[in-house]
Amino acid sequence: MKIVKRILIGIVAVLLLGVIIAFMLPRKVRVERTLVINAPADVIFNEVNTMKNWAKWAPWFRMDPEMEITYFGPESGVGAGYSWKSKNSRVGEGKVTIAASAGDSILVNMEFTGKGAPTAGYTFHREDAGTKVTWTMQADMGMNPVGRYVGLGMDKMVGPDFEKGLHNLDSVSQLEAKKVSEMPAMQPFHVEIKSVPSQMVMTFRLTSSMDSFPAKFNAMFPVIQKAMAAQGMKQTGPEFAIYHVYSPEKVDFEAGIPVDKKGNTIGVVVFKELPSCSAAVTVLMGPYNANMKTAHDKVQEFIQSSHKQMAGPPWEEYVTGPGTEKDSMKYVTNIFYPVK
Asked: Domain for residue 6, yes or no?
């Protein structure tokens, strides 16, 4: 009995020592990997900021191509996310949601069912050789002694997956950048003067840096839609954006949605009626970053050669885009320049 008692005391002592050591281990764990990708920052940003693009590069999709995916929220930006279920024990189940999205960074909340809720971050910094992409994950291992020990091996467990994901992202981004660069210039653009009727709209206006513009822009429409829903409004036409200032230093822009009835201003979302006008109009087919500048230049050249004058800020009308069309080659954007 004494021997058994000593053994039990020894086991308890070892366990107690293990618990004491566990609480001396770091509670918070960080995993980080970096890769310079030979593609523009905005192309890479879009691959991470758009949830459905994750299937092309996220390592877990390749571990189990048959896992069940359910997308929710907007197509991209804050609130966009997906949940997954997999029979593969390494993949498991959970969900990810974009919590913050700026031009040079994205923050993602992750929930692994029964395994914690870490946060992941992505930063994008332009360099001479391309774009430096850093992928991080931070987790709080809590007061669970076992969790503290698991945290010791987190870098070795997760780090290789991050490395694979970054290399996948490199390949995908380079292909997307190549596709855009090889697009033939759509010459000539047909520009004509059209009569644009007045319309009731709900708009949201912001000023941002050029780097932050894409993410802020994507996050504005859900805010407008929420204000519309609160007043029982229906959308009557394509989403649009008015560009009051567009320069390398700043972008002063106004996102808007046409609505079916008069409404009230709610917070940052303003109800207004845009007056009828005459406008020089052209149509851009394809990705925004391919020939958008050329399209705007052509309209401006038309205005000058026609001896017209601009009568207000230009705007773009997004007939089809990421929210309705997966293939960027099929995007349709109407470009308007009010003239007199």
From this structure: no
- Cα 232 to Cα 229: distance, rounded to the nearest angstrom: 5
CA atoms of 55 and 309, how far apart (whole Å)? 47
178-187, 211-220, 235-244, range with the lowest pLDDT: 178-187
Mean pLDDT, the chain, integer: 83
Kindly write down the DSSP assignment for every residue of 158-183, as one continuous string.
Answer: HHHHHHHHHHHHHHHHHHHHHHHHTS
| Shared domain check, 32 and 142 | yes
For residue 213, what are its two tokens? 């513009």
Co-location of 197 and 120 in the same domain: no
User: What confidence category does residue 274 fall into, taking pLDDT thresholds of 50, 70 and 90?
Assistant: very high
Is the pTM higher than 0.85?
no
Closest CA to 289 of 180, 174, 216, 178: 180
Task: Give me the CATH number covering residue 55.
Answer: 3.30.530.20
Closest among 172, 175, 206 to 103, alpha carbons compared: 206
Residue 124 is assigned to a structural domain of this protein: yes
The type of residue at 179 is K
